[in-house]
Specification:
- The protein is of the alpha+beta class and 193 residues long.
- It has helices at 17-21, 34-44, 63-74, 104-118, 122-134, 145-156; strands at 10-16, 51-53, 58-61, 84-86, 89-97, 181-183, 190-192.
- It folds into two domains: 11-118, no CATH class; 122-156, no CATH class.
- The strands form two sheets. Strands 1, 2, 3, 4 and 5 form a five-stranded mixed beta sheet that branches. Strands 6-7 form a two-stranded antiparallel sheet.
- Residues 172-181 have a biased composition (Polar residues).
- Residues 162-183 are annotated as: Disordered.
- This is ParB/Sulfiredoxin domain-containing protein.
């Protein structure tokens, strides 16, 4: 049996969503997939706690979760699992810890960026997504059937049927090269026009 210990570096506190609004980092450049977050919260409940730095008093992780919860509450939905209602206010448990002065912004950026940089093992992801789709359990994951089609095309080295080949401007000297980066909406491949 694992030994339980008192964690002195982190503590849990319950906050109303209204209280958490005052702790939002107003200059957060990260955007969130709110539709997918709401679906995930609706299916799995509130599982990844919002993280608050006690030095700055600011949320450093969980802005998207908070936004999704606020939208769901505003739309009159029932609270997801593990979200409590107290005097009509939705409340959630948050994790508090203490960063050094001035670390809240780089921590927030680093937390989001390191997740983004991790990427996926496309073959393994495709296998797992196909298994979930076969079990009708894809909902709440943020992945959609069209993502599986695009991933399958990328893994197999085939371009999706909707992708049309753009001639290389180098082959046609009458066409100027703009240097503009274009991303394929199906496979994510980046091309220079």
């Amino acid at each position: 049996m694992p030994k339980q210990s008192l964690v002195a570096t982190h503590h849990l506190e319950t906050h109303t969503l209204a209280d958490l609004i005052a702790r939002v980092w107003g200059e957060n450049p990260k955007r969130h997939a709110l539709v997918e977050l709401r679906d995930s919260l609706g299916k799995f409940g509130y599982g990844q706690p919002i993280l608050i730095d006690d030095t700055s008093g600011r949320i450093v992780e969980g802005h998207g979760v908070l936004a999704a919860l606020l939208l769901s509450q505003e739309d009159g939905e029932k609270p997801p699992a593990r979200v409590q209602v107290q005097d009509g206010d939705w409340t959630v448990t948050c994790v508090h810890f203490q960063l050094d002065e001035g670390q809240a912004t780089p921590y927030s950026l680093g937390s989001s960026r390191t997740l983004e940089l991790g990427g996926w093992d496309d073959n393994l992801l495709l296998r797992v997504l196909n298994e979930l789709q076969d079990k009708d359990a894809l909902g709440g994951t943020g992945f959609h059937p069209e993502d599986i089609v695009s991933l399958q095309a990328r893994v197999s080295g085939e371009l999706p049927a909707s992708f049309r080949e753009v001639p290389d401007p180098q082959d046609d000297p009458t066409q100027p090269r703009s240097g503009k980066q274009i991303t394929c909406p199906h496979c994510g491949e980046v091309f220079t026009a």
